[in-house]
Amino acid sequence: MDSFDYVIVGGGSSGAIVAARLAEAGHTVCLLEAGQSDRSPFVQVPAGFLKVIYDPNYTWGFNTEPVPGSNGRVIAMIQGKVLGGGGSVNGMAYTRGQARDFDHWAALGNPGWRYADVLPYFRRCERKTGAGDDTYRGRDGNVGVKHLDWNNPLIDAFVESAQKLGVPLNPDYNGAEQYGVGRYQFTIENGHRMSAARAYLRSDVARRRIDLRLHAFAQGLVFDGQRVVGVRYRRDGSDALHEVRAGKEVILCAGAANTVKLMQLSGIGPGALLSEMGIETRLDLPGVGENLQDHYVSRMVFGVKDAPTINRMARGPSVIGHLVNWALGRPSMIGIGPIMGCLYGKSGAGADALDTADYVLTFTPGSYKAGQMGILDSVAGMTIGAYQLRPQSRGFVRLRSKNPMDAPVIQTNYLAEEIDQGVITEALKMCRRLANGQPLARYCANEAYPGEHVKTDQDVLEYARQQGSSGYHISGSCRMGPKEDRTAVVDAALRVYGLEGLRVADTSIMPAITSGNTNAPVMMIAEKAADLILGKSLPPATL
To answer: Cα(211)–Cα(202) distance, rounded to whole angstroms?
Structure first.
């Protein structure tokens, strides 16, 4: 029987980091990843994002249930199924969130998770190049982070138009303050995607001490009484069931959907649900699968005149010039993420918006078919997306059946709360004000989506319901909280309540979603989780 000190399920942004840190400490680690290697050039080259994001070879084919707040639509829920996880298929935007996000976590009964406590882990993780206040930024971590270095007049016009509307210029939204307008930062280095797998798993120590098993689909946890001692899994194309044992702990890093699915398959979760599925309840833990959160993104598209767009540059002879520049290490469309300008704004739609940004607008000097990411439109356009940073609507993840091959039931309940409806409406109205303001209006040929027939606030909200999609940031489904809270799943050390030898260290532990893309926060969680597992003295709080 295979036996290691630690077994980790999921080789994504969290699992890769936890595995590497445990290996560096001298432990043996088995890392189970259901997907394939991340060596494909479509994964490693940033422009390959449009290829892999919808490719079932690299992503789980999950969908939501019909969402009432999205006019009953079924919405794609893309999750990485490849070494590096979401960090190998995402848009590479690097956003930590706001200090208040983590202070809120601590206020909910999670000591050690204030912003001052987690900032050292953010700094430890990153290797930031270029400008930035070193009070906040890390310079010698594993993950390369850079500002957008590719110039386009439409991006400049977006930033300038926002300033003329009263939004301050913010050169570093990951520094002291998030509010303002600027350019995105990316997990990109030397023209290549910098996933956690690439950043942490290619060292000599990682290669020697981590047994990486790809195409390994976890089926259930192995118990000795109330202690988790291993994982059962199958390899792709085989019916044979394998078992790997952990002498110390099993750590779940499979993401907010698959971590829940594995726990429930193993008899950990709401007892009534498990009974309905025909699964023996080993631990009745009501919070497993509840409190699901996500960012709901709606996009407006405008035709472009008199300016270069990705629609044109990605076709014909010009793309050759971009390939040459990328190969020579120069700024190029090939070596950047799909969203480039960002505006963190205040909607005024509720008390939450009075002192801090509560929505973000994302800008792309290009447009996609029907306003959706994936396939470039045939005409020149630009896209401004919008989403609420801290949605109040909550959903759930549940087993569909006791067959491990069945996709989980995912219900996000987008726009269920009135404040969420108000924020997205105001954010989309801001998209319009930007497009109609100078200097961006100089390049705006028309409003392609939703069009001038959408006039009232109710019209705008209805457009968001009909057109919006997932931000692919699902989180919160195994939330961290104090023991007296029956809906909490893990404690502040990420240990699952009621069991020994089992921790969770991925986006599912977030008590509340962070203000922006979740890849940077989950890498922070992983760095902190490794110290907690190893019993290391935590770095002193800063600020």
So the answer is: 13
- Please indicate, yes or no, whether residues 153 and 141 belong to a single structural domain of this protein: no
Residue 3 CA, chain-centre distance (Å), reads 32
- Give the containing element (helix H, strand E) for 80: strand 79-80
Q: 122 and 221 share a domain? A: yes
Domain of residue 361 covers 149-183+296-388+416-467
Cis omega before residue 120 (within 30°)? no
| Whole-prediction pTM | 0.97
- Say whether both 462 and 477 belong to one domain: no
351, 251: one domain: no
The answer to whether residues 247 and 131 belong to one domain is yes
- The total of other beta-carbon atoms located within 10 Å of residue 453's CB is 8
What is the token pair recorded at 268?
């950990």
* Whole-number Å distance between alpha carbons of 542 and 41: 39
- In what order do the strands lie in the sheet containing 185-186? 126-128, 143-147, 185-186
**Whether residues 317 and 174 fall in one domain:** yes
Residue 543 lies in a domain: yes
Q: How many domains does the chain have?
A: 2
For 376-409, letters b (16+ CB in 10 Å) and e give: bbeebbbbbbbbbbbbebbbbbbbeeeebeebbb
Q: Are 35 and 215 in contact (CB under 8 A)?
A: yes
**Residue 17, Cβ density class (10 Å: 0-12 exposed, 13-18 middle, ≥19 buried):** buried
Pairing of strands 296-304, 469-470: antiparallel
Does residue 176 sit in the same domain as residue 46?
Answer: no
Q: Is 64 a member of any domain?
A: no
Report the relative pairing of strands 59-60 and 79-80 from DSSP bridges: antiparallel
Per-residue tens of pLDDT for the chain, all 543 residues: 699 999 999 999 999 999 999 999 999 999 999 999 999 999 999 999 888 988 999 999 999 999 999 999 999 999 999 999 999 999 999 999 999 999 999 999 999 999 999 999 999 999 999 999 999 999 999 999 999 999 999 999 999 999 999 999 999 999 999 999 999 999 999 999 999 999 999 999 999 999 999 999 999 999 999 999 999 999 987 889 999 999 999 999 999 999 999 999 999 999 999 999 999 999 999 999 999 999 999 999 999 999 999 988 877 677 888 888 888 888 888 999 999 999 999 998 865 545 799 999 999 999 987 755 667 888 899 999 999 999 999 999 999 999 999 999 999 999 999 999 999 999 999 999 999 999 999 999 999 999 999 999 999 999 999 999 999 999 999 999 999 999 999 999 999 999 999 999 999 999 999 999 999 999 999 999 999 999 999 899 888
Coil, strand or helix at 309: coil
**Beta pairing partners, 180:** 344
Q: What is the CATH number of the domain that holds 501?
A: 3.50.50.60
Residues involved in catalysis: 473
Shared-domain flag, residues 303 and 384? yes
